[in-house]
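Each record in this resource describes a single protein on a pair of labelled lines. An example record follows, reproduced without changes.
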Amino acid sequence: MLRWRGMWSEERVDRSVRRVLPRSFLARSLLILLLPLLVTQGIALELFYGNYLRVVSRRFSDSVASEIALSLDLMERYHARGDRAWLITTARNRTQLAMTWRPGQRLTRFGSTHVLGPMDDDLVRAMQEIVAYPFFIDWLRDEHTVFIDIQVPDGVISVEAPRKRLDVGQIWLFVLWALSGSILLFGIAALFMRNQVRAIRRLAKAAEQFGLGRDPGPIRPEGAQEVRKAAVAFNRMQDRILRFVSQRTAVLAGVSHDLRTPLTRMRLSLAMLPHTGSLDATDLREDIADMVADVAEMERMIESYLSFARGEGAENPVTMDLAALLDDVAASARRAGVALHAVDCSPGITLQARPDAMRRMLSNLAENARRHGAGVWLSGRGERNTAVIEVDDDGPGIPADRREDVFRAFSSGTGGGGTGLGLTIVRDIARAHGGEIRLESSRMGGLNVKITLPR
């Protein structure tokens, strides 16, 4: 139980991480580059301004506080007016600390006005540790000077310390330098990664086009060594598949031609047989008609086998209007004796497809319904980036547990004759166009064939 809970928690974490991460390979690659870069800059910033800056700031503050304390000690030792004036002048010249003695005054504020950075806290700490008198530090009166007022027994000593003696440096300069360097490096890395990803995208597009039955031609190997090898392997695979399909189609076309020749002779011989002048002329005519029908059935079966084996790869895809296609198929089906009741298609739907293959696919569906004595309804519509074609009939239908079996070659479905290749050819054509086919129960009482094709 605990183990199952742990696995479930890990799956939830994985799903959460996947939702946050970008989906594209380029974005993930750039993220892999960006995160270590940001972490490195953060560590450098913390090490420099988190440790080095504090140490230097404490030393600067201690130095200023020590010089102020030394000056105060000398003023207490040599408290004559002339000596104090000399000490103030010497401190200004030697330590850059401008001191002013205001006798008889009292401080009304104590502490410090805080600013961003460690130097204000460090100076307060140093003054508290080194100087034994109350004080007030003003950082806001002048951006170049820090004003320190110290309460001494006989008045107030005002000290003007240059801010540069306490300020280590502008932090935004270091941050700007770090960010500029990071952006420059990230831009160079993104440029190189985009070139690598572009080669992968070109390979993926060529594979998708080839999977849809289109010939994208050989792709130019480019990018990293592994991507180049994948492109070369894809070109070789594409060439072998096309050569195999071409050879198979040529062989099957030859076989079909060789088989049609004796069948044509048989049809001609049957046509030339005498139909009269015999006692059994009636029976002979019936036998001849049966044999002619058998020959026609054999020719139709040969054509069906050839269509199944060769596919439709030699035909080039064109832009087709779905409504015109359904009207054309409906007209042909009615001429062939199919009871086609209605055609309903939304206007303006186009798709990239092979015309002959699409007509063969829909004609096979209509012919299957005709063999089962069913009426047919054709419909088409668009859904986002897909075109949906539905063929409904009012025949006996196919049980749900046998709907996948009818797609197997030479499966006869629910009977009714045929070669058992009709739905197999239909699914092959749909998948060759990058689509899919699904069988469901029809609202007309029979079978519903739903074909989804990319637009």
